[in-house]
Hints:
By secondary structure, the chain is mainly alpha-helical. The protein is built from 25 helices and 5 strands. The protein has helices spanning 10-14, 19-33, 37-50, 55-67, 71-84, 89-101, 105-118, 123-135, 139-152, 157-169, 173-186, 191-198, 207-218, 224-240, 244-261, 267-280, 307-315, 328-340, 353-366, 388-394, 407-416, 428-448, 458-463, 465-475, 521-526, and strands at residues 296-301, 320-321, 376-380, 399-404, 453-457. Helix 3 (37-50) packs antiparallel against helix 4, helix 6 runs antiparallel to helix 7 (105-118) and helix 14 (224-240) packs antiparallel against helix 15. The longest helix is centred in the last third of the chain and has 21 residues, at 428-448. It starts with 9 loop residues before the first helix and ends in an 11-residue tail after the last helix.
Amino acid sequence: MIASVAMFTTQQRYQGLTSELAQQAAAVEQAMGERRLDDASRGMDKLTRQAPTHPEVLRLRGMIEFQNGRAQSALEPLISSLQQRPQDPLTFSYLGASYEALGDHENALKAFRKACELGPENARHWLNFGRVLTASGWSEHAAVVLQQALKIAPQDQLARAMLASALHQEGRSAEAVTEYRKILAQNPASGSSWWGMAVIKPMPLGAEDVARMRAVLSRADTDRDERIPIGFALAHALEHLGEHAAALDSLAQAHALMAAKHSSWDSVETRNITLRGLDAFAELPAVQPDDPGREVIFIVSMPRSGSTLTEQILASHSQVNGTLELSDLPQIMSDTSGQHQVAYPNWVDTFSQEDWLALGQTYLERTQRWRRERPRMTDKMPGNWRYLGAILSMLPNARVVVVRRDPLETCLACYRMLLYGHEYTHDFASLAECWHQFDQTVEAWQARAPDRVRVQSYEALTQDPETQIRELLTFCDLPFEEACLNFHSNQRRVSTPSAAQVRQPMRRDTARADTFGPLLDPLRSALDLPAFTAKNE
């Protein structure tokens, strides 16, 4: 969301421009507001030629770059505009949005904070600031900021939904439910509100809520984008009420809507990529003591497998800084693929050891900010398991912790969760295929580099935490610290859906597949597991 109001008057903004150029600037801004970006870009040509250094022209140029998806290119004109006009909250808002798009939350927060200071009467500035605070794991601060947004605009449902999410992350579940229900009182078809409540523990949804969700889904005018999260929320509520068959039916309908909206998952192509990735790194050079990487502990997994819990344990150590779900490694792989004009891993065999170490240096430079206070850091991006060979080539002394949960529980957890961008979760066959690819990759890398790749069993961790935590720390070359056993007391920033859960003591009651009984036999079959029998109860 970008702020649409600024403190500067139109006359102040256009000061120094001729009447003709001022009219041109107004036309460009109107075209952007109407999403006529081609018209806006054409209109900028004359402005840029005749007044390239004017602060308003620079601001407009940065806005167009941002709206065209070129956030990196937006930075220079926006910063140049602010050097001349440092009191403009609107320019700071776009600068913050550009940094946010680039994954630079630190600079995004600085820019949005400044926008709030300069334009405190604008709720959108506070909303932008609160959104990035939440994404950065600063949920306590986000709640305060979003409450300020609601003081200015009490009917803003997006701000209220974000406040509810921040409250949930802080473990303030009852307050979060109250905010979600305020939204639903105005808009019963708010899918994000129903889904937000569905993942709160203890489950706040009951039979009356099930009836309300079904009524919304029965209406022909309910938007598809709202039907999807409502379908997932309904499934969770039905499961809580013991109606497992109806829950699976609701999930199937929601996944069908998602599958129709997004590109399908190509199991054959992804398997070929997985196999090519394993073949490309069949041999790794010997590790030297002075090779880079000791600074980083990568945590990879399938989603919903306990990776956040594992990171929370490691981040409770005095030498380790827990981060967010960093996009740096995937971005480096993507950038390198772009340079070679061929997809990963098809360019791997062209790389020398020096090339890999150079990429590793790029990674360390990009992530340096996470090691300012502590010498080591975690990088928990579950899908990085596809880059294990690249990780160990770039950063030979890095440690990789692969969190592995029971396959049936993992796939069910993925199927139950609303996971945008994970197309393999929409049916049992694709889920099982992705699991098999993950399992094959992990098994290969643990065999190839057992001193650098550890498979951490989620079940073993929950059943015997102290033994497992001691072994985990030893693998990471960290001395034992009692704080790692008391990980739930660590108040560090956590921005994943497991934020509230990892601030609680270890739970052993997370398995749920058996409660579905034989209803999950199609998934068991796809995973090459035996059918359900009574003895599994």
